[in-house]
Design a protein that fits this description.
single chain, about 650 residues, mainly alpha, about 75% helix, globular
């Protein structure tokens, strides 16, 4: 049922009692979340702390004190035992004392000490589940709150540049901010993790254990396997499907990549190229509707834009991203003279659909309920019920056609029960890292609100960019890359939008939703951008290639991650809407610009491009981004003329055209 039960060189098996505890607590947490989502909603000061308490206990059980590659031992239990009790206390304190806390003017000393304990245990849990970088950043923000003439760390005030100075805050004030209100640990980030994110992570777990992942991969192979570079194209399509389930680039790489990367290598792609293609495609899974990882739910809370609206406006940008990756993959296949796989080695579309069509029903139901206006949490609850019903109905149908017996029926029911328990446990396990990241993000949000750091950072950003929007966007890219070295995508998005969001919207005039989408997209770049490219490293491990070379390839194939947000900023119509001619025009030049950029990057489109053609295409592409309709027309005319010339040359020379 769990990976911990298997002895591996990297993760020694947990003792049986610990394995059982993880299973029981994980299942209990998932059942609690389902109850709250679909039966009896709880107030935020009940649900969020209880969720955090469960997550902390799971975290300290799953991640031993000295790392998962070492046995816990007596010393480990001497450390982890008190931490588990502290996690329970951190989750139970506010719900058990809510009446007293709500009616008091000043916090009691015991509340302050519990606040300190909660912060420390959250930072340690994040170190284990997310990484040391997250803990260091959280600790630095707390130190910043103390740095000032009235704070606990007055000496740090002398180290702060003038614009970053503030009065400083006492231990009591910071502890209260962190745990006795909705602006710290129990703020919006953890609230989203404890509601929308968890329920959809659980939905993904149910899809995974019922075989939906294999269905999406097989369907992608059936659709693209016979074309040039078929396995690479299947990786792109399968990652789009799996990404809408997992919401994690690394999870995408290790699931779809286990199938696609070996086949890409077999077809002729270099190992680093195969790993990079999978990493780039998997990264797109986090921007692919309808789920889009945790970021879309957070975006909805921050912007007060309905979740379904964010999903709808994200469809076209996600289509552009996967279209660019698909085109680059195809160009590489044509340049290297590849062919598709023989039909005998591929699944048939009809067969795949016949065996797994029921996996599409929960996704259809999910989208239909979102459009109908149901809350995302309730939608997730009913989506989980729908996958259970669909999988059960399919199993019963198969059972009825195979000579049913009572013993067979009992075995079928037992199998369904075991799979349900596996999904409940898997969902809880998969939620640990994102919930811990969101808890620390709440600390950061609390400090920013307490000290006014967001406004100060905005002023610094304006000063460094000189009021130039393009330079400001470059700073956002650099900041997202630096943050991505130590933070997961969701946490990087939260920190970055808190720091740069006010400047983008108030000083540079970027609409609120576009500013959030911009930061959300740029927060993905640490998955594919050297020197820290986590999805690229995962792809390298499967491909058996060098991590840095694979990351460079991932960076190349994921270029849409940088360009598409620029189209959002300078062509607002593709997100915010507008007159139909302008929307169609903006969509057309976005497609044209990305196709031209792919040709410049690879030096090939319909046939090899001469160097002068690639040089001339660059100003045309820049013109397509320019916030002037006249310049856009000129750029479009130049790009169309050059691409038409390339196509004409291919017809005259007999070079094979690029066809999907």
């Amino acid at each position: 049922m769990t990976t911990d039960s298997v002895q591996t060189p990297n993760h020694p098996a947990q003792p049986p009692l610990v394995r059982r505890a993880i299973v029981v607590i994980g299942i209990t947490l998932s059942l609690f979340q389902l109850w709250v989502a679909g039966v009896q909603p709880l107030g935020l000061f009940f649900q969020r702390p209880i969720h955090l308490g469960f997550i902390l206990v799971l975290c300290f059980l799953i991640y031993p004190a000295f790392g998962r590659d070492k046995p816990r031992g007596p010393l480990g239990w001497a450390i982890d035992g008190p931490l588990i009790l502290a996690g329970i206390a951190a989750g139970a304190w506010v719900p058990l004392n809510i009446d007293t806390i709500a009616n008091q003017v000043f916090p009691r000393q015991i509340d302050v000490w519990m606040g300190i304990l909660s912060v420390l245990v959250v930072l340690e849990g994040a170190r284990r589940a997310v990484g040391l970088g997250m803990t260091i950043i959280g600790a630095l923000f707390i130190a910043y709150a103390f740095a000032g003439s009235r704070g606990e760390l007055t000496f740090l005030a002398d180290w702060m540049p003038g614009i970053l100075n503030h009065r400083g805050y006492s231990l009591e004030r910071v502890a209260s901010q962190m745990t006795l209100g909705a602006e710290g640990i129990f703020g919006i980030p953890l609230g989203v993790a404890a509601t929308f994110v968890f329920i959809f992570v659980l939905f993904g777990a149910f899809l995974e254990v019922t075989g939906a992942g294999k269905f999406f991969i097989d369907l992608a192979y059936a659709a693209t396997g016979r074309s040039r570079g078929g396995p690479a194209k299947a990786a792109v399509i399968a990652s789009a499907g799996m990404g809408s389930i997992s919401g994690s680039a690394i999870a995408n790489v290790v699931t779809t990549g286990a199938f696609t990367i070996p086949l890409m290598k077999k077809l002729g792609y270099r190992p680093a190229q195969a790993g990079g293609i999978e990493a780039a495609a998997s990264t797109g899974g986090q921007i692919m509707p309808p789920l889009m990882g945790a970021g879309a739910f957070l975006m909805s809370e921050f912007t007060r834009v309905p979740y379904v609206d964010i999903v709808l406006v994200s469809i076209f940008p996600a289509f552009l991203y996967f279209g660019v990756v698909y085109l680059l993959v195809h160009i590489a296949a044509v340049k290297q003279g590849m062919t598709g796989l023989p039909a005998s080695e591929l699944p048939r579309t009809k067969t795949v659909l016949a065996e797994g069509w029921h996996f599409l029903l929960p996704l259809v139901a999910l989208v239909a309920m979102l459009v109908a206006g149901y809350s995302p949490m309730r939608v997730g609850f009913y989506a989980i019920l729908s996958i259970i019903v669909a999988a059960s109905a399919r199993a019963l149908w198969t059972f009825a056609g195979s000579g049913p017996t009572m013993n067979g029926f009992i075995a079928l029911c037992r199998r369904g029960f075991v799979l349900s328990l596996e999904a409940l446990e898997l969902g809880a396990r998969n939620a640990v890292a994102v919930s811990m990241a969101c808890a620390v993000a709440g600390i950061i949000v609390g400090v920013v609100g307490l000290t006014g750091l967001g406004l100060k950072f905005s002023a610094m950003m304006i000063a460094f960019s000189g009021g130039n929007l393009v330079l400001a966007l470059v700073l956002v890219v650099i900041a997202s890359l630096i943050l991505g070295m130590g933070l997961p995508v969701t946490a990087a998005y939260i920190v970055l939008i808190i720091l740069v969001g006010p400047a983008l919207t108030e000083e540079f005039g970027v609409p609120l939703l576009i500013a959030h989408l911009l930061v959300f997209w740029y927060s993905q770049d640490s998955n594919v951008t050297p020197p820290v490219a986590l999805a690229g490293f995962a792809g390298a491990a499967i491909a058996g290639s060098k991590p840095m070379e694979t990351s460079v390839q991932a960076w190349k194939y994921a270029k849409g991650l940088y360009l598409i947000p620029l189209f959002m900023v300078f062509n607002e119509e593709i997100i915010l809407g507008g007159p139909l001619p302008m929307v169609l025009w903006s969509g057309a030049i976005a497609i044209l610009g990305l196709v031209a950029f792919a040709g410049v990057l690879e030096g090939f489109l319909f046939r090899p491009m001469q160097i002068w053609m690639r040089i001339l295409l660059l100003p045309g592409i820049i013109g397509l981004f320019w916030p002037s309709l006249t310049i856009e027309f000129v750029g479009a005319a130049l790009v169309v003329a050059l691409l038409a010339l390339n196509w004409h040359q291919s017809r005259g020379s007999g070079t094979p055209e690029v066809a999907a």
